[in-house]
Amino acid sequence: MKKQTAVEWLVKQLKNMEYDLRLIPNTIEIAKEMEKQQMRDAVLSQCTTHDGLRKIFDKQFEQYYNETFKSK
């Protein structure tokens, strides 16, 4: 079964909202968190299985993500 990307999920949610614009900001935030988790999973799936090193990679990912994608 193919996994659903955050963008695919967001498009589906927006189509099902029946134009209730009040729901859009929260739905977008959920999609952003989904995308972040998908990115983290992709990075960590290619890393070592050593727990200590995985924690370091996870921390580095969090720093990279915040510096690259979070608005100030």
Question: How is this structure best described in words?
Answer:
With 72 residues, the chain is mainly α. The protein has a domain at 34-72. It contains three helices and no strands. It has helices at 6-16, 24-45, 51-69. It starts with 5 loop residues before the first helix and ends with a helix.
Secondary-structure content class: mainly alpha
| Helix content class | over 70%
- Specify the number of helices: 3
Instruction: Give the ordered list of helices and strands.
Output: HHH
Based on the model shown, name its key terms.
about 70 residues, about 70% helix, about 0% strand, elongated
Which helices and strands, and how do they pair?
Elements: H1 6-16, H2 24-45, H3 51-69
Helix pairs in contact: 1-2, 2-3
